Amino acid sequence: MIVPMKKVTLLAMAKDEQRALEILRDLGVMQLVQTGKYSSAAQNSLELYTSACRLARQLDALRSEEAELVPETSAERGKAVLESAAELFERKLDLEMELSTLDQRLDRLAVWGDFKMETIETLRSKGVTVLLCSGSRDEFEAAKLLDDVSIFPVRENRSMVDFAAVITGDAKDISGKLPVFRLADDDDPASLKCKYLEVKNRLEQTEKTLHDLSCETESIELYCTGLSDAAEFDRAADAMQEYGEISVLNGFVPQPEIEALRNAAKQHGWGLLIVDPTTEDEDVPVLLKNNRFTRIIKPLFDFLGIAPGYWEIDISGGVLIFFTIFYAIIVGDAGYGVLFGIISLFGLRAAKRKPALLAPMRLLLVLSVAATIWGALCGSWFGLSTIPGTQIAIPGLECFRDFASSTAKQANIQFFCFILAVCQLSIGRIWRTIRERNWRSAISNFGWMLIVWGNFFLTVRLIVYPGEFPKFMYALYGAGLLLVMICGVNWKNAAAIFQFPFDIIGSFTDVLSYIRLFAVSLAGACIAGSFNGMGFNLGEVSVWLIPAGLLVAAIGHVLNIALALLSVLVHGVRLNTLEFSNHTGLSWSGQAFDPFKKSKK
């Protein structure tokens, strides 16, 4: 359920503003309403925190899995580590650029071998000039005809020739006729190689130092936590409005925490104005009470970044139940369910060291159990039910296997999907009635329920079991349309009148949308069966091809699992957040309650 919120205005002496904020932060019960002000102090602290987090991520990426973490020392140590890391990363970048330049120069000179500039200069002082040349074949042939020049080809291809020209005459006149390869004064391969090794050693030492610093994760986290708190505190100070000697702070506090705030106000001499939010225009934060349903389904809501609005209703229980069923149908294989279940058990074990894994792994375990049960009832274990003679049967469940795997009875699964549709959408209408709490809404939503049931029988007759439409279907449509037209349409609003026929059509497509569960499940079964068939065919050709067949089947199942998970996000989530939410009246416009408090490392 959604915890009731109170709108609070807090008054404190301006001289005690800093102390008041510190006490509020320790209480951790109030979400502040920002005024739009963004001071330079808040900007600077945010930039410092952002920069520290970026450096921390860069260091974390360098740490190997086998590296042993250094125990936490202090935030000051974390600051020193990040300052050193900033210098080292800058040095590393410079060294990498220098190394790249040296590598390019050596690659450019590689064709000439390990010559020495000193030797060339010595020969020049004795009247012998050695020029390194690179030109076309015509230029090479012309150079061979020059007097007092000896040509020594080094490398040739169809169009270009690299050669050395030894001049014993006047080098100034002759050099202008040659395609001279220009050398810098320090273009000495031996010296460049020594410098390359030196820079490479410095780069390796820098990377080793960075790797050592990356093991001080706990101190870095402690420092970053402090920066986060400082940035949050500066933003809280911006939320304070000063009126002479009085500072005013507005925010929202959960009703169960009001007493703690009142006690603090009495102790420190604050003034409090506590009222209930009155209009839906107010951006009231949402705090969901931590019950068994919100604990399990919360990771999905967090992943999607959605929450019901404050004035809406908490449908966590309904989403959990139906999302679990949708997941089971879409995955549709007991083997996949067992595989995910094993992963979730390992994850729950790892959650002892990483508590953040607990909630997602708990949800994955619930979904895995559902997928295993559905797959077992359908007789599908890694898609084997699609290959004759390979079905894995569970005693007593053969009828369920036939229910799912027989082509003639696939309509039964389609029928089950439409049953889910009519049940979920009807529950949505009931919850909408409970939330709106007026007789016109109750009548209108009951009329929409009748229309949804009429749509159910219409889709069943059109798609699943073709035949004559039952007479009571017309009665459902007639009664539903009448009730909606009387209590659900604003006849004074032309837009509402124009929209009404489209809403009727939309209710039909909402029911029809649930056929996607069957379609995606069937596609997954076909993919798994196809790859299994290719693997079996390879094994039948030759015993030596059995490993290749297993590899083909494994690749197919990996692909199928990836597609199934993607389908769960696309289709399983959509049916809950769109079709179901539309009938429940949810906009998912809520902002999660985020009180002003100290961060947890």
Structure commentary:
It is a single chain. The protein has 601 residues and is α+β, with helices and mostly antiparallel strands. The chain is built from 20 helices and ten strands. Strands 1, 2, 6, 7 and 8 form a five-stranded antiparallel β-sheet that branches. Helix 15 (410-436) runs parallel beside helix 20.
> What is the radius of gyration computed over CA atoms, rounded to a whole number of angstroms?
37 Å
Task: Report on the biggest sheet.
Answer: 5 strands, antiparallel
Taken from the alpha-carbon principal axes, the silhouette is extended
Mean pLDDT: 83
Number of helices: 20
The H/E string reads: EHEHHHEHEEHHHEEHEEHHHHHHHHHHHE
Q: Beta-sheet strand percentage?
A: 5-15%
Report helical residue fraction.
Answer: 55-70%
Write down how many β-strands occur, each being a DSSP E stretch of 2 or more residues. 10
User: Helix/strand/pairing class, anyone?
Assistant: alpha+beta
- The end-to-end distance, rounded to whole angstroms, is 29 Å
> Which residue ranges are poorly predicted, with pLDDT under 50 across at least 5 consecutive positions?
386-405
